[in-house]
C-alpha cells in the first residue's frame, strides 16, 4: 500500500478510534451511574453496591492473562468486534429481563461480570493494536486522544446521568447504552488493525504453542525487558496503596466533612478536567524523552497530594475554603495521573514487540488490579477504626517510598545510561528530536 494512503488511513483510524472510545465510554459510564443509583435505591445496602464493584473488578483480574494470549494468537479486529457485540447482547439481555420480569440483583451482577470481561478483552486487544492502527510518529497522540475521550466521558456522564435518572426509566438507560455499543462496533468494524503491524504473518499456519506455553513464553520475554518489569512492580504496589485514596477520598468529604453532594460532584469533575487538559497537552507536544523518570516524579506528586487530602481534618477551614482546596487537589491529581500513564504507555507501545503486546499488557493489567479488591476491603476496615487523615498520610508515605525504592536513581541511570554520562537533562521537559 502506498505510504500516503497508509497515512491517510492512519488518520482515519486516529479519529475513528477516538470517537468509538468516546461513545462506548460515555454509554458505559452513564449506565454505571444509573445502575449504581438503582442498586442503592433498591436495597439501601452499601454491601450490595460493593458487590457490584467486585463484579466489575474480579473477572478482569482472573481473565486478563487469557485475554493476552488470545490477543497475541488471533485476529485482534475480530476480538474487538466480538467483545463489543457481546456487550450489546449483554445489555440487550438485561433489557429483556427488565421488561419481562423486572430487574434483580442477580441479573445486574451477572451483566456486570459479562461487561467486565468484554471491556477487558476489548481494552487489552485495543491497547495491543495501537501501533498497528497508526504510524509510530502519532502513537503518543493516539494514546492521548484515547485518554481525552475517557476523561470527557467522565466529565459529561455524571451530569447526563443525573439529569436523566428519575426522569426516564431504567429500560431507557439500557437502550441508550445498546445504541452507543452498536455505533461503536460499527466504527470498529471499518478499521484495519494490521495497517502498521509487525506481527508474524504465519502465526495461524505455523504449529501453535499451547496456551500455557505461550503464556510462559510471554513471561520469559517480559523478564528480558527490565524497564517494563520495573513498571509492573510499581503498578502492583501503587494500585494496592491507591485503595487509601479510592475509599478515603469519598469517606473524608462525605462522612467527615459533610460536603454537599453537588459540591462533591464538582470535585470529581475537577479530577476529570485535570486529566482532559493534560491529555490535550500530550496530544500536541513531542514525545517525552525519559518517560520512566517523568512518571516517577508524577507518582511522587500523586503521593504528596494523597498525603494532604486529610489536611482539612487537621486545620479549621470554612466550607468554601474546603471546596476550593479539594477542587485544586483533585485537578492536580488528575493531571498527575496523565503524567504517569501517557509517557509510560507510549514507551511500552514502542518497546514491546507486536507478537507479545497482548501478553505483556495483560500481565500489567493483572498485576495492577490483582490487589485492588483486597486494598479496598482493607482500607474500608481501617477507615472505620483509625483516623482518616493518618491513614491517608501513612499510605501516601508508603506510596512515595515504593517508587523511590523500585525506581531508585541507580535503576533510572541503568535504564537511561546517557544520564550517567553527565548529559544536561531537564527530566520531565526534555523531548526526543
UniProtKB/TrEMBL annotation:
Tagged with keyword Transmembrane helix: yes
Molecular function in Gene Ontology: transmembrane transporter activity
Annotated keywords: Cell membrane, Membrane, Transmembrane, Transmembrane helix, Transport
Pfam families the UniProt entry points to: MFS_1
Protein's membrane topology: Multi-pass membrane protein
Gene3D superfamilies (UniProt xref): MFS general substrate transporter like domains (1.20.1250.20)
Cited InterPro entries: MFS, MFS_trans_sf
Domain of life, source organism: Bacteria
Subcellular location: Cell membrane
GO cellular component, one term: plasma membrane
Transmembrane annotation, as ranges: 12-31, 78-100, 106-127, 148-168, 174-197, 227-252, 264-284, 296-315, 321-340, 360-382, 388-407
PANTHER family referenced in this protein's UniProt entry, alphabetically: MACROLIDE-EFFLUX PROTEIN (PTHR43266), PERMEASE, MAJOR FACILITATOR SUPERFAMILY-RELATED (PTHR43266:SF9)
Stated name of the protein: Permease
